[in-house]
Each structure stands twice: as C-alpha cells, then as structure tokens.
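tokens incoming
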C-alpha cells in the first residue's frame, strides 16, 4: 500500500515518471526497466533482504542509477557504510519525511546528479532537538537545505 501511495503521489507531481514498481527483491533484480531509470527508491527492510545491498547490486549493474533509501529507522547506523565510503548518488530518507513530496523530489533530483542526500531530521539529530544547537536559525535552515540536496 505504501509503495502504491508513493508511486501515485510522485506521478501526480508531473515532475517524475514512475516506470515500475516492484514488490520483492527478485522482481527488482529482474526488472528490465531499471536500466532506463534515473533513480530507484528502495526500502531498507525488504523482508529478509535489505535495500542497501540491493542498491549496491543495482549500482554495480547501472553505475549512473541514483539510489534513494527509505527507512523507518531514525538513526544513521544503516547508512554508515554509505557515508564512510563517501558514495555519491545515494539518499537516506525517513519514511515519515515522504509525507512531504517535495522532500522526496529533492532527494530524487539530488541522486540523479550524483549528490548524497540525507534526511533533514537526521542531519538535525533525532529525537527532538537540534544536533548543532550553536547554529543560528538561518544557519540551521541552510544546513537543512544542504542535506536535502
């Protein structure tokens, strides 16, 4: 249901074209349209397999493919490998941030052009407070925009 709602919301923006939707890792691995895509959205929890591994496989097969990882986990433990490897063309967003379609559109555009995009809530530090409490309001706003690509 989440996948269908997200696909529909993205299509309605008229800013992206959804060319496929896969329900399993096997479907994603064999999907012919992946080679035509600029970016792919992957859940990090794929029922026994993970989206990070699948994203790595897809990136090996299609080096220009942007990878947007969606997660319910509000910490960076799942994305540390990507951050440590200084990989570009990857995004890590919280599913709750997807409620704002503009956030996901910025992430898709960012990974398409090779940027690394981090969910603004993670950049600010969760739960609750700001990670960089010494920043002025405008500096915090700019940091949030930078992390969104």
């Amino acid at each position: 249901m989440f996948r269908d709602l997200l696909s529909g919301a993205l299509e309605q923006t008229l800013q992206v074209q959804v060319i496929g939707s896969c329900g399993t890792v096997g479907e994603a691995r064999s999907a012919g349209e992946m080679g035509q895509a600029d970016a792919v959205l992957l859940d990090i929890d794929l029922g026994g397999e993970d989206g990070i591994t699948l994203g790595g496989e897809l990136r090996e097969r299609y080096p220009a493919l942007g990878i947007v990882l969606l997660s319910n986990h509000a910490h960076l433990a799942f994305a540390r490998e990507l951050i440590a490897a200084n990989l570009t063309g990857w995004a890590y967003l919280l599913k709750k941030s997807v409620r704002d379609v503009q956030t996901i559109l910025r992430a898709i555009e960012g990974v398409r052009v090779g940027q690394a995009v981090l969910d603004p809530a993670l950049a600010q530090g969760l739960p609750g407070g700001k990670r960089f409490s010494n920043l002025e309001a405008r500096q915090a706003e700019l940091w949030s925009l930078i992390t969104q690509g």
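note: The chain is about 40% helix and 10% strand.
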